[in-house]
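User: Some background: our group keeps a shared notebook of sequences we're curious about, and every so often someone picks one and asks for a predicted structure to add to the entry. Today it's my turn. The entry only has the sequence so far, pasted here. Could you supply the structure so I can complete it?
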Amino acid sequence: MFLKHIDLTTALRPSYLPDEVLLFVQDNVGLYEGKFKLPNQQNGQVYLTSHRVCYVDKQEPRTHSVALDLKDVERYEFYAGFLKSSAKVTLIPKPPKRSSYHSRALSNASSAQRNLSGSPGISESAYRAPPEPPAVTSATWVCTICSFSNPVPSNFDPTSANAHTPLPPCLACGIKPTLSHVLKAAISGASNRSVASPALNAPLPLRPAHSGTRPLSENLDQKPASNLPDATNGSNSTASFQCPRCTFSNHPSLMTCEMCGGPLISQNVPSSIQQSSTADTIRTDSPGPVLDPSKINKNGSDAPESVKISFRRGGEKIFYERLKGSMTQRKWLLRDAPPAPNSRAADEGSKDTPAGTLGGRQKGVGIAGLEQLGLNMRKNNELLIGSAFEDLEALMSSAKEVIALAERFARQTNNGQGNASAEENAILAESASQLGLVTTKDIVGGGSSESLYLSELARNLAEFLTDDSRGVLKKAGGIITLVDLWAMFNRARGGVELVSPADFEKAARLWSKLKLPVRLRTFRSGVMVVQGRDRTDGTTVRALLAWLRDLHEFPPEREVPWDWKEFGRGVTAQEAAERFGWSLGVAEEELLMAEEQRGELCREEGLEGLKFWVNYIDPGEHKKHKSQAQKDSDEVMKALKASGLL
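Assistant: Of course. Here's the predicted structure to add to the notebook entry:
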């Protein structure tokens, strides 16, 4: 099919290719294949990139998300909508390329099936039809020397012909034609043949309505066939083939014209043959315009149908404009292209280098070294900008380097002369958004752009947290405060399109609704933290209890007045933060949660501060009851101690 299944990230967004750039996002869209709805792709988001159009379903994103490559799109159309009909963008695929061997195999299979289903028993038939002759081409090329009409060879394929394809000479003068001349003749002949017979794959002879090929059982019940020749002669006398090329009337049994040799095309094909030939191409209308998945490609053909994207909440105009720009740029052609050689910098460097310093390396010390370092940096920047703006291809390949250079200049401007102007910041933000470096409000559209922006920001945050290369949650011990995450996220954006605290909190609250692998948690004190979806209060309490049990095995740093092997020792929030990698505030909140909500810990307030112990005081529901075997062993040990044996 034209649509392909895609892989999604942890934030349920499409996995982009190495050089793929996000251009536009729109929600509340559905997909059509031809005139029929795809039942599993009716509520989702569409992502337009420089290479693909991706659809991510909201109900089952891992199963029903599909995409199509822009390189397979031949043309695209826009429909503005009317009344209850939503606006649509139609993507029409390129026709599939089939080899001549595959076409012959399909035609042979269809002819064999037609012959098998034509009569009740072929072996019982009184007449055996001769094998069908090969299709005769009607294309001819006119010799430019003698103006003689020569037939195009039957094995000549216009799609695979090149300069090394052998061409036959003219039958009259013996001069070989040019390849372009034969190509034009073959293409024009193929177009004329397709227009003349749109519903037939091969010329069919006209057969009489009453044929003599009948089963033997039928002949036994019929009258003597004395009148059959008259009926047959009567039908043959009126039927004839008129050549579409020279208008000569030929005998109905002939396949080619007697005058010009052109193929004869029947004008009165029986209705049964027409129905059988068009049964696979005509689909009956269903009560609801929904495509049945079980009937897709029922006839075994691989010809894809057009795909329509229905926009229910707007955004179709921006999508169409950016699709037009992406189809014009065709960035997928640069995906496997080799990098441009950087010979200009080497040539200019060799010209600027003095002849006396070629043998050794210049050593700069002090102020002279700093000046030389600044001069080299300015030269590199000049070469980078010059090579980037040399042409469009080099500019796109060096876009990220140019943005990094612009950000460095912006930081230098801010440090030296105060804040930069609003126009410079707008230009920088627009460049970064066009490169797909950040999620901005420019890539969303439609009436619900605010909610769509927040959902995309939530997905971007989830990807930022679960990225293994960054390791944000891993470095923070699996939990981080929302304020720290906001500062870290804005710092990672490089000062471009900073997110406000209000939008950041709204996006974080959408994680549970979007079923993302992270969640927002609020403590009783009002502190909001971010942690993994699989990390619950129970897992945190178990980790704390396991750590406190380990303290029964290791002696404390200084002598304590109690039995540390039996009771262990208390821990502070600072020690918990160092143990699990949490911040001090998060460690304190987790210890209070284990004490107040779970009852597994108890507190000790003293001169050294607030310490937390395993709860040996509470005899209620949080106290673990000993088994009968443990009680019996305790009684035995108590009796042995009383007798003086221990």
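Suggested note for the entry: Residues 139 and 190 are 7 Å apart (CA to CA). The first strand starts at residue 4 and ends at 5.
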